[in-house]
Structure formats: structure tokens, C-alpha cells
Amino acid sequence: MEAEQGRVTCASWIRRPENAHLVAMGRSKRRHDDDHPSSLQIFSFDPLTTSLSSSPSATHVFEEEEGDPVNLAVHPSGDDIVCSTASGGCKLIELYGREANLKLLAKDLLPLQGVGPQKCLAFSVDGSRFATGGVDGHLRIFEWPSMRIILDEPKAHKSFQDMDFSLDSEFLASTSTDGSARIWNTNDGVPLTSLTRNSDEKIELCRFSKDGTKPFLFCTIQKGNKALTAVWDMSTWKKIGHKRLLRKPASIMSVSLDGKYLALGSKDGDVCVVEVKKMEVCHWSKRLHLGSSIESLEFCPSERVVVTTSTEWGALVTKLNVPADWKAGTGQSGLDGSRFLSKLIHCGRGLFGEENTNFRKVVQAAREGLKILISVIYLVLLGLFLASAIAFYIFFQNSDSFWKLPIARDQTAQPKIKAILGDPQSEDKWGAFGPLDM
Length: 438
What we know:
It is built from three helices and 29 strands. The protein is mainly β. The strands form seven sheets. Strands 2, 3, 4, 5 and 6 form a five-stranded antiparallel β-sheet that branches. Strands 1-29-28-27 form a four-stranded antiparallel β-sheet, with no helix packed on it. The chain is globular and about 85 Å long. It starts with a strand and ends in a 17-residue tail after the last helix. Mean pLDDT is 84; it is low at 1-6, 328-343 and 401-438.
């Protein structure tokens, strides 16, 4: 665990090939006469020592009129970072180059200039959509990277609290400072439903499950003095249960990329990590950010490590006391489109240049093509499996080997199953062999 001293406002992991992940960190200017301007810094991560580099690998300095960085979101490919600033705009910062020579190129996002402070920024899991939620309650959903508007809803909430995309990128969950929560269809921007709650309950944070098998939505609920973590079924959008995990008000929530763990950060600096399968706390970091609300909390893409930030203690990287096994889930398998495309993007930027207007269209087409290729590969593997199963069945039916012994002509017929298990009408219900564990 390593602390980065200073006024850190936000931080997020950047996925890189060969698990050489980075951390993007926003820093504000402490005072008007401070010599250190507001900036976005990129740090390398050493998994052996569970620490960040002592100095940044790359830095972008914000103009004084842009203000301090407030929040940031990193594209799943690891090449694009969107940062909202105190002045009320959003900046696109592109990351390119190799780890030894990283460079940042800042661009204005025209549809998000002068829109006011943005509380929430989020990319969809597949990287095809980008959403913003404003302090003024305005929700915007865009296609990425074209920035075509899917939804522009000025009155989505009173004021945004949190948001998250589902694993399939089809749904967006959003919560408000007034305790309400809504579900949106990201394909056409239609509001689907509002989560039900009691009059004394406030829904605050939301995260979708990410393991690919349990279609749930996790939300934190404040019910009087009780802090609860509740679960909604995505097929019906009904609450199926709740549990007291953190046992104090939460300021931030996160789910690991493989979906095995859920993390909660408190408003006084504690962090608890929950095993989703059992919904039990498996790791505690008490007083990690002593007396300070945790503003950022995110799992490392490939290690059982989290990065956290607070205004008082800066950024901390913490190794979790949980099993180190890693499930090949969203973006962690050998067929990882983001990592594969990252290499192509770096090569393409060198060939075509950063300002080539067709470059991003080519990258987006490549991403879609890779998805189709992966689907074809899986279909081919499924076909081979079915062919093997059919061949085995034919072999089994025609075999005289150990797998299917033939009955001799003078041999009695094979015994019926009831002759082995016993007569169901007899007093011995389980037959001669006792109860069978079916």
C-alpha cells in the first residue's frame, strides 16, 4: 500500500496489455497561489510491491479557466479518458505510446462544453456507449466515439448520485440525491422503470453484477440509521433481499471485473469487500482513510487490489486478503478484444497520426469485427463439440467393447431398474442397497 500525498480528487485504473496496468489520477490546485496547477497524472503500477510509481509517467495540465478535475471515466480499451472539470465541461484525454514513453493528447468534447458540473461519468462495458449525469439532474447517453445522442433528458433526477451500465450494456441504472432510482434502456434511451422503495428508504449507490451468471443489481439503501445493501432481480426489477454489510453509510461502491467481489467504501474511511456468491464480508480495511470520505474505489483489472482516494489522504493502493484466483470474465480471457485492439491502436496512431479523422472510425469497425470473429470461433467450437458427441454416441451403439457389453444368446435379459432398487410397494422403500444419493 502506497500513499500519494496531495489533493487528489479522483482516480481510476487503465487497462493495458500484459497486465501492465496504469492508474489515472486527478489533482486539484489547493490554493489560488499554489505553484502546482490542476492536472491529470498517469502512474504505473507494480503488482509485486502493490504500489504506484513515485512519479507520474505522463501529465496533462488543465488551463486555469477549466478548473479542477472532478470526476473521470476510462474507456475499456484504456486509450480514452474523459474528465469532468469544476468549470462545467468535459475533456477527452487520449493516451498513446508505450509505457516508457506515454503521451497525453487533450481534446474538447463539444457536446459536453458548458453543460455544468457532472457528478457521474460512465462507459458501457463494451465501450460503445458513454453516459453523464449532472448535478442538475440532466442525463445524457451517447454512442462512442461518434457522440451521437441516444438520450438527452434534462429532468432525469433532482440531482445525480450514482450510475452504472449492465454487463451487456443494455441497461443503465441511475440514482438521485432524493433517494429514487431509475432504469434506462440504452439502445433507444427509453426509461424502463423506477425501483420500488419504502417511504423511509433512500437508494443511494448502484452497481450491476458482472459475473455473467447472476443478472442482479446491487444498491445501497439508507433506512433511518441502518445502512443496507439490497439486491434487485433484473428480470422483474423487484427487490429479492437485503443485508447489513458495511453497517455504516457508504460513499462509493464497486464490483470486480470478474464479478466475484463487491466493495463498499464508507464516509469515514473504511472499506469492506464482500464475496458475492455468499454475500459475506471477506476483507476489512478499517480506518484506511481515517476520518475522510472515500471518493474513489475501484478494483484492479487483473489483481486482487483496489485503489481508493480521499481528499485528506490522497490515493492508496491496497492488496486484499482474498483468494488470488482470477476468473476469465469480462475482458480477462485470452480473447480480450480491448487488449488486442490496444496494440492495433498504438500501431495505427503511429501510422496514421493522431489527427486523422478516419482513424477512430477504423478502430470502432475493428472492435465490431473482433466481436463477430470471437462469436464465430465460439460457434465453431460448439459445432466440434456436438460432432464429437454424435460420433461417440454412434460408437457407443455399435461397440462390443467395455462401454457396451452384448448379451449372450443364452443369457437372461438385463434386470429392470426396479429389480435393483427393490419393489416400491415393499416395506423396504430403498431396496437391498439402502438409500441412494441421486
